[in-house]
Design brief:
Chain lengths: 379, 379
């Protein structure tokens, strides 16, 4: 018997109690029962997004909410700044170009972040910029952008700050209102420990102002119309009902743990993972602030990183992820977000030792696990 | 104890075996396991859509796939014909107008269908029309359009026929290839007996030709790009994995029953429902071909139809649906699609007798049930 472990950077494991809640008989989305569910979830989402604004849900994957952010706040011909530090930064760029929005890319070499002063300078050079688009956690490279500093750099400008928090919501601290973030986008299948299929947008008053001015056409992702339905505790179109049912359970779990503890847990798991990998002589891909959601690791010289993930899978029944785009073959990625705790990291590292050994690499067995244990033993 | 029954025209009840399949541990969407699932589902969807073309899935509700159909086959300034026989016909119109497409509405009074010769005449008057958009089953009024005849009327023109089959796929016969339907849109939460959250588009060669010419911007719903991923047995963006898992189970159930039997079952359930309602002295809302998916019933004179559904709910724990838009207060709707069989109809009718009685209407107890039983006893 080989137990199955999902250790990729999303979708993440769904707790059994949540799976069973979602396996309850289907309910209808225009009933008092659904309304009660929605009211509870609506309040919980505000706390999770650390905002007093309503969080607008869409039945889609995170990319749908990314496109919603663009088509609801911008118009063709607008100029925006895009922080491009990985594959998901490129996605912002693709979405903007698709809709005739001019992109000024602010690039960081993959594995690094774009510093706040780069954004500040670019905003001075491009006072016409309508928005700054970025990832909080960039899942393709495993780095974490300094949203607080970039929000401070953006606040005085006319531009809104749009943050993809798909792999940071409920993982890394993101104080939407306090830091002055204008639009936060997220999804259900990462920190929220749910199946993929539900996404979210939360907007500041400044962002709602941009919505009024936006001229790009939208129907399914029409956020101003959806907001009116949310105000009545429903969704405009038939929502992913079962994921909403799961969301209620997940919000309860996160509130019981407490958001600060949730963030500390992820930071600690990430630190233990990094420490374990380095103790095994591996190089981390992140050269600046690493993400608490996942760890991207450079494959040892001469070893294709695809061999690492296939050995994880075939020998140990563990799913991790490889590199995307130009990082394919060079990087493997270990997820530690959502329903993850200490001994999951121990398992991932113990398996990594086995995998490296099976691939003919020299391994000091136990070294990775030992380094992680030391992190866990800290007070 | 009052057992709960979901008898609305979607979302529909999900079979327990499907719920439990979906409650299995989450899997990742870039793995051999998911690929095997996708291959099975891909083949099953073709048989269900009665087409040799690939069916393109999107993580969204049915409205998302409706918008996908429009933005992928049309351009701003194009003219289309829209069959407007209810709320969902109006939705086609809204989506088209949102994207700068000129709509020529072909109206039927609510409760009636638009005949094929109306479409034929309109196509002669508007040879510039790029598409004809319609509902197969119009869930707001409970009628069924004659897709076969309208496809025949459309085939010779340059226009493609776009059919919303959200409440007809796996319910009413729809021979996409044989009848020459160009684009079929559907969703997971009606005949497919799944939770809402997955939608589908299937396109003919003629429709794929329109995709090449379409100039409307799209990213999340970019059907040509998505098609390339489907060809490799995956989805472009993180899909609603758990609904795909359920879909495999549902396709097995539908294939075991056999599509012709599935269609006969729905037709029989609908006939029994109509017969039962008429035996209770109620008027059916559909004046032309009724839909096998649901029955829309006119509330007795002087009775608000909202009272019928609230009594169904509060007295009997049964969810049915009311009228939408201008039909609110006048019509109630009984769903009989998906995971529904004879004794569900008996339950709905027995409850209706109780509900009418509770609302002070004269009721010949058993008359509705008796009429349905006679239909079921037919050979």
């Amino acid at each position: 018997m080989k137990k199955y472990y999902l250790m990729a950077p999303g979708p993440t494991p769904v707790p059994s109690n949540v799976l069973l809640a979602m396996a309850q008989p289907m309910i209808h989305h225009r009933t008092p029962e659904y309304e009660a569910l929605f009211i509870e979830v609506r309040a919980g989402l505000k706390r999770l997004f650390q905002t007093s604004q309503d969080v607008i849900p869409f039945t889609s994957s995170g990319t749908g909410a990314m496109e919603a952010a663009v088509v609801n706040t911008l118009s063709a011909g607008d100029t925006v700044l895009v922080l491009r530090a990985g594959k998901f930064g490129e996605r912002w760029e693709e979405i903007c170009r698709t809709h005739g929005v001019t992109v000024v890319p602010l690039e960081a070499p993959f594995g690094q972040t774009v510093p706040a002063d780069t954004v500040e300078r670019a905003l001075r050079l491009h006072p016409e910029a309508k928005a700054v688009l970025m990832q909080h956690s960039e899942s393709s490279t495993g780095v974490l952008h300094d949203v607080k500093a970039i929000a401070a750099a953006t606040r005085a400008s006319g531009a809104i700050l749009i943050v993809d928090a798909v792999s940071s919501l409920g993982i890394a601290d993101l104080r939407m209102d306090e830091w002055g973030v204008d639009l936060v986008v997220s999804g259900s299948q990462k920190g929220l420990m749910l199946p993929p299929g539900l996404s979210f947008c939360a907007l500041s008053d400044k962002a709602w102002g941009h919505v009024k001015a936006s001229r790009l056409p939208k129907y399914y992702f029409d956020i101003a119309t959806e907001r009116k339905f949310v105000a009545r505790n429903e969704c405009r179109f038939t929502p992913a009902v079962s994921i909403f049912v799961g969301l209620r359970e997940v919000l309860k779990m996160l509130e019981a743990e407490g958001l600060p503890a949730v963030f500390r847990r992820h930071e600690r798991l990430a630190r233990a993972t990094r420490s374990g990998c380095e103790a095994l002589g591996l190089e981390l891909f992140a050269k600046t602030q690493p993400s608490p959601a996942l760890t991207a690791v450079v494959a040892p010289r001469g070893l294709d990183s695809e061999a690492v993930l296939s050995t994880y899978s075939t020998s140990h029944n563990i799913t991790i992820a490889g590199g995307q785009g130009e990082m394919k073959g060079k990087v493997f990625r270990l997820g530690h977000m959502g329903y993850v705790a200490d001994f999951d990291v121990i398992t991932a590292l113990a398996a990594l030792e086995q995998v490296l050994h099976e691939l003919g690499q020299p391994v000091d067995f136990g070294a990775g696990v030992r380094a992680a244990q030391k992190v866990f033993a800290e007070r």
